[in-house]
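To make this tangible, this section ends with a sequence with its structure tokens:
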Amino acid sequence: MRVTKSKRRVCVTCQILSWGLSLLSTIAFADDEFHISGYYKNFSTGLTSPLPDEPIIGAVNNRLRLNCAYTAADTLSFDLSYDFAPRIQDPSLFSEPSIAIATDSLSYRVVDLDSAIYPGKDDPAGSFGLFQNLDRAAIAYGADFADITVGRQAIAWGSARVVNPTDVIAPYAYDQLDTEDRIGVDAIRVQIPIGVLGEFDTGYVFGENLAFEKSAFFLRSQLNAAETDFSISLVGFREHLMTGFDLARGIGGAGVWFEAAYVYANAFGDEDREAENYLRASVGLDYSFVGRAYGFIEYHFSGAGAGEPDNYLDNLSEPAYTDGAIYLLGRHYLAPGLTFQITPLISLGGVLLSNISDPSVFPSLQIEYNFAQDIYISVGGFIGIGNPPETEDDELQFRSEFGGYPTLFFSSFRIYF
């Protein structure tokens, strides 16, 4: 059979491509210099409003994440992560969050991709949307004296289990379903080791268009003494100044923590803008029972919150809520939690977040089954229990905090690669 020149050209091209892929695989994976990982997640949710005569609304949120890590040398590495998220949900959920969220972490980015691929700004509202997020894009340099990271990265602090007072850059709210990866922020960060367990951590987090009033900076030291981890922090964010303290240690087989932050509101801003300083603190302990059960209890105080339900909505315009990552409306909270390993592959966990001044509670419960390697399914829910809100003169009035929260039921499917 006669082989034409075009066929020979295709064959040669295929052979070269095959060699190229083989060489890339050898270089990239044999020495673990280049690594690709990620996951696919599906969250199907149903929401019932605390207000009467409101319909149940639903959502199906999908998330595909690709993580790329490349080590160019022993001291230089690159990280890149991209999320692609198709969603099918009630049109109202595209314009308003369905449940409480913390501060808008995406604002700590100089420039960013348009979050919504579809629908566009001028497209009619529907029930389908495509979203994206370039969540990591950073270069890390590891020198003998320090680790330096430049670019989009995760920054988080705090030892508390439910509410972290010192975590004001990109925290998650209690009722956030997907909290595996912190939202990436644009920053320069320098971490200097001190001794075996100590560290000095400093950096600058860039806000939109590099504006100082939308940016943040931090200085944080961590050390270990007398079998206790201590950290002291100074954080400037959106023209406010926070001093923080964190302590964690073990006592008699249990772990204890105390985390506190005091915020000087508008410390770098306009003196004519009135804003009150406030204190936040969390204290708690945890314990593991015979290897199958883990429990904790935490008390949280929020000086920025209101003492009476009638004043809850009045505080939402205060800097503590618009800038300071606070989402809880009251002052005193108690949160016990328990996780039980039913079998090696099935776990059951729950937390009972309670506003002890209302009183109202917001329990969460989840059961998870690891039915195959790197594949998980789970079901659960969050239930707001308390006096429901009332509408007076077309204005919403809270009678308790969590009585005004919707009830959320969900199922999830996660596969990692």
Notes: The chain has two helices and 21 strands. The CA atoms of residues 194 and 200 lie 7 Å apart. The two ends are 45 Å apart (CA to CA). Confidence is low (pLDDT under 50) at residues 1-31, 97-103.
